[in-house]
């Protein structure tokens, strides 16, 4: 799959170290919520980013500053500049819910916003639980309020909404909510708890995993999950709850840059 050169139409500061980039595509990607693109900054690096929205040739990406490539993007890629993107890649969320609860943490809220827009556009009832470190780090909350029926926010320091984690708030909201689907994206330890709880309750659940992605098309094995050998880049990044709970790696291991299996980073 080739690269598309995309013009940066707008850059918005969402939170400390998190920016939204709106890219003008020369051809629509036709992406689905949960799919991702590889962003290539020549001479710097390439990294995966979930699609946070696509409409009329404009692709929305939310990028948190982590290391070399995302740091360069934050500092040097401005409105009017260009980046290269390939995609859309991977398998996204199934969009067959009637009443869905979305549970997101940090920049994991970004792909869930795209999902919320699509589900509510298809007539589903959408509620969201969003967890952040503090009010300052909360992002996309107003965007969610425009498309979701209920939006509950948790902050670890209690500076906005419920004091606690997204999982704590999920535990309060989920029972008795009458949801037929749960969707989650964020820290894997958070997702593991959400997935386990939903599967126990017999509610369909899907989660978007993060791993080191190199090829993005299933050939290099950098993102393989034990023991099934599923590839996060092409079989996922979205998997259903039963599949996730059958994996040794979910919530425990990932692979470092050399492909070695190591404990999941916190
Ligand atoms: C499917 C998927 C969706 C993602 N969606 C988002 C998103 O919407 N917003 C966001 O901010 N982040 C997202 N990430 C995480 C993002 O890819 C990493 O934070 C980013 O690659 C870090 O790059 P870096 O160079 O700044 O950091 P460094 O730690 O310096 O990483 C060095 C290099 O490792 C390579 N790499 C490839 N995949 C990864 C990875 N998953 N994590 C770390 N390094 C990687 C890249 O070449 C990267 O430049 C997603 C990851 C995956 C797998
Ligand atoms: S990144 Fe190469 S197989 Fe997934």
TrEMBL record:
It holds the Pfam family DHODB_Fe-S_bind. The keyword Transport applies. PROSITE patterns: FAD_FR. Residues 1-95 form the FAD-binding FR-type domain. It is an enzyme of class 1 (oxidoreductase). CDD domains: DHOD_e_trans_like2. Its EC number is 1.3.98.1. Keywords: 2Fe-2S, Electron transport, FAD, Flavoprotein, Iron, Iron-sulfur, Metal-binding, Oxidoreductase, Transport. [2Fe-2S] cluster binds at residues 215, 220, 223, 233. One of its GO terms (molecular function) is dihydroorotate dehydrogenase (fumarate) activity. One of its GO terms (biological process) is pyrimidine nucleotide biosynthetic process. Its cofactor is [2Fe-2S] cluster. Binds 1 [2Fe-2S] cluster per subunit. Belongs to the PyrK family. This is Dihydroorotate oxidase B, electron transfer subunit. It comes from Thermofilum pendens (strain DSM 2475 / Hrk 5).
């Amino acid at each position: 799959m080739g690269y598309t050169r995309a013009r940066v139409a707008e850059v918005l500061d969402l939170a400390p170290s998190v920016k939204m980039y709106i890219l003008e595509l020369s051809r629509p990607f036709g992406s689905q919520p949960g799919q991702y693109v590889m962003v290539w900054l020549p001479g710097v690096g390439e990294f995966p980013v979930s699609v946070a929205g696509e409409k009329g040739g404009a692709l929305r990406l939310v990028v948190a500053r982590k290391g070399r490539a995302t740091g360069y993007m934050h500092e040097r890629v401005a409105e009017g500049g260009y980046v290269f993107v390939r995609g859309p890649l991977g398998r996204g969320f199934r969009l067959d819910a009637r009443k869905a609860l979305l549970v997101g943490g940090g920049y994991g809220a970004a792909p869930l916003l795209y999902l919320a827009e699509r589900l509510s556009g298809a007539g589903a009832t959408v509620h969201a639980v969003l967890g952040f470190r503090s009010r300052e780090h909360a992002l996309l909350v107003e965007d969610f309020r425009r498309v979701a029926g209920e939006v509950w926010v948790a902050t670890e320091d209690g500076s906005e909404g419920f004091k606690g984690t997204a999982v704590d708030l999920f535990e309060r909201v989920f029972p008795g909510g009458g949801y037929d689907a749960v969707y989650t994206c964020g820290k894997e330890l958070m997702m593991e708890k959400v997935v386990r709880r939903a599967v126990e309750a017999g509610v369909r659940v899907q989660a978007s995993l993060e791993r080191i992605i190199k090829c993005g098309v299933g050939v290099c094995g950098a993102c393989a999950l034990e023991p099934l050998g599923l590839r996060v880049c092409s079989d996922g990044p979205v998997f259903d709850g039963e599949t996730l709970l059958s994996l040794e790696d979910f919530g425990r291991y990932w692979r470092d840059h050399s492909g070695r299996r190591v404990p999941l980073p916190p």
